[in-house]
Design goal:
2 domains, 18 strands, Ala_racemase_N, pyridoxal phosphate, TIM Barrel, 8-stranded mixed sheet, Alanine/ornithine racemase family PLP-dependent enzyme, PLP-binding_barrel, Elongation Factor Tu (Ef-tu), domain 3
């Protein structure tokens, strides 16, 4: 049976590197835990490391976080949907917001539950996902500043996630200027400028981060050690905190090209095969994992001589060529994974999750 393994020491090493960088630069930070899909076993490892602030996009995940870390601060990191607002107030201490009507509803629900709810107002800085347009920000702030039981604790932005727009000193300085404008006009202090995500970590390392940026929310760098500017591993960090282990359930020498009239496969695709493969044979291994668990494009075989062919809903087919490694049925094939690969597997109830 396939299983996903989290290596505790590798995770702890990445965490300690990030903690030092942030501490040295007087930056507060929280862990974006949505990758873990509310898995109690893995969340407990973050608590053991000392994580006291969790960021997530799913109410059920926040509910689990409150179970394993009742004193931790929970942050809901997308604009809330109307139907989720009672749960947002119940399970999220902070939420990201961009809409006046939504904040009004959060305010009313916070009054109802006798809570003070903190919000971060997200600003559009070029990636065209969530965010108030900068020219409307002062009017927007004026609308929401006096909302009952709402405490505006920060301004933030999100870059890279939709259109791949990278953070820069200029964009982050502009974010800092919005803070100064609001503080001057409304005679208030805004504690957080949440301009940092995993993609911003390289600017911090290179000492190119504007001093006003004092809050980060980090997931991918923690779990994968990835520099999102270069798509390379950050020096000293681990890129294999997670590893997938699968079992060979069939292994035969077969033609490299299928025969018969070709239509669409289960994914609605018609695979193509290079002309040079016609008439050739190789050993094909079938593994006990499929599209229901993970898109194969996010899997990286540890054996560089393996080629991923295709997946159906519950099986993954590999080309092990002439099987020089001597694989047989029952053997284990392991993979490193990209971010979306881990996310898919974490969301699958059919793949066990274990610790090392």
């Amino acid at each position: 049976m396939a299983y996903l393994k989290l290596y505790k020491e590798k995770l702890a090493h990445n965490y300690s590197m990030l903690e030092k960088w942030f501490t040295d630069n007087d930056v507060e930070w929280g862990v974006v835990s949505k990758l873990l899909c509310g898995n109690q076993l893995y969340l407990q490892e973050l608590v053991k490391l000392g994580v006291t602030e969790f960021h997530d996009t799913r109410i059920s995940n926040l509910k689990m976080i409150k179970k394993v870390a009742p004193k931790a601060q929970t942050v809901y990191i997308k604009p809330p949907a109307k139907r989720t607002i009672p749960s947002i107030i119940k399970y999220a201490d902070v939420s990201f917001n961009t809409d006046y009507t939504t904040i009004k509803m959060l305010s009313a629900e916070a009054v109802k539950q006798n809570k003070t709810h903190k919000i971060i107002i997200m600003i559009e800085m070029g990636d065209l996902r969530e965010g108030v347009v900068g020219e409307n920000l002062l009017d927007f702030y004026d609308q929401v500043i006096h909302s009952p039981n709402i405490n505006i604790v920060g301004l933030g932005t999100n870059l890279n996630c939709l259109n791949g727009i990278l953070p820069s000193q200029d964009k982050l300085i502009q974010l800092s200027l919005y803070k100064q404008l609001i503080e001057a006009k409304f005679n208030i202090k805004i504690p957080w400028i949440s301009g940092g995500t995993s993609v911003t970590v390289p600017l911090l390392i290179k000492e190119q981060l504007p001093k006003q940026i004092n809050h980060f929310r980090v997931g991918e760098v923690l779990f994968f050690g990835l520099d999102l500017f270069t798509n390379q591993t950050i020096v000293g960090m681990n890129n294999d905190v997670f590893r997938l282990y699968t079992e060979i359930i069939e292994l035969y020498e077969k033609p490299k090209v299928p025969s018969g009239d070709q239509g669409f496969n289960v994914a609605g695709e018609t695979p193509n095969y290079p002309k040079e493969d016609y008439g050739k044979h190789s050993y094909r291994a079938i593994l006990d994992i499929g599209l229901l668990d993970c898109n194969p494009q996010y899997l990286i075989p540890d054996d560089e001589n393996i080629t991923i062919i295709e997946a159906s809903s519950d099986m993954l087919v590999l080309d092990v060529h002439q099987n020089d490694a001597g694989y047989k049925v029952g053997d284990t094939i392991s993979f490193k994974l990209k971010y979306m690969g881990v996310l898919g597997i974490m969301n699958s109830d059919y793949v066990d999750k274990v610790l090392e």
